[in-house]
């Protein structure tokens, strides 16, 4: 109660299974007394491309554009584009970040990757030697909630898609842990398009149920052993 | 000689190190008698977002938009948007796909992820049970060539960033192998921004040198052991 949650949501269709998962999270967390903000990336037509347009005004080095350097400098002088400043404000205020999306090609959809690329700039999310446990977004939690096309059997160590944890490494360790954000167990709905209506309802109920005790969960141990043991 | 190469390039600045790597590849491969095509994603202002705009004309199911289903159906009736058809044509003609980019958050930049999301649709790159070794892009080679921010020591099994091969799994196995494309050893330039000018020149020379005998290389064994052993 009183906790702030930002849900970054990347699906085009409100009637989709991802749309249902979003709706459940908003309802359940609001009922708990949390303050919930949703960044609905497709509806916002969020820009995924990292370009010169992200810097308002002059460039630090107009001779050779370096996105990392330019956004870092722009952040320090308050010169990032308005859409980025708004997303950073939402992140800053949040106790918990939930990412809700369909897995596309073993990874998040480009529109969500663009959110990571553009919002989590140096100076804001990390800085020189302020990375991993020393990252600038310490004190926050994150949770990756997604659907897959392939089944749970395929996403096993012996399955053709490999252990599902392999695809979590770049997202959870490479992004969230890098910024100092703790990571809760991912919430994975396997192949909702290929199961019965009853099974889909069970999946939705399980998400709702998990959210009821979410704040009592301990973060995972974000070490290579968790992912590759 | 006579081979066709498509280079999908994702950097904003021609004067960057990635820009130099691109230039070297175009020059060296052209010199060998290859026909080289470049998709320069930022210059093309390539759209990374997977939306309804990718389908020309009517939708298969306008009641609930499903990107995977709609692009599959659109592909079959020749109803994908022009920019996708053009990229698919380039892929179809290529013997080798080279992806040249800076690693962003343990992954490819969003604009390049968007190329994967939108170009490699069902029906074109894979189909029902035509995946992995049976994928529809069989007979082609691919090569991921990228720069990193972190050093080679950091990207080792004991380093904080973990083995660099962990980040290759979603790209090489999850995308290329899934579509039936064989994968050559990646070409990785570690932290070019943090090394001496001399070292940078050595890195460029090494890329040029490798390209001279590229067509004699054997693809990697794209199994979990290669990535996680």
UniProtKB/TrEMBL annotation, chains A, B:
Its EC number is 1.10.5.1. Its cofactor is Zn(2+); FAD. It is found in: Cytoplasm. It catalyses: 1-(beta-D-ribofuranosyl)-1,4-dihydronicotinamide + a quinone + H(+) = beta-nicotinamide D-riboside + a quinol. One of its GO terms (molecular function) is dihydronicotinamide riboside quinone reductase activity. One of its GO terms (cellular component) is cytosol. Keywords: Cytoplasm, FAD, Flavoprotein, Metal-binding, Oxidoreductase, Phosphoprotein, Zinc. Residues 3-211 form the Flavodoxin-like fold domain. It is an enzyme of class 1 (oxidoreductase). The keyword Transport does not apply. Belongs to the NAD(P)H dehydrogenase (quinone) family. The enzyme apparently serves as a quinone reductase in connection with conjugation reactions of hydroquinones involved in detoxification pathways as well as in biosynthetic processes such as the vitamin K-dependent gamma-carboxylation of glutamate residues in prothrombin synthesis. Homodimer. This is Ribosyldihydronicotinamide dehydrogenase [quinone]. The gene is Nqo2.
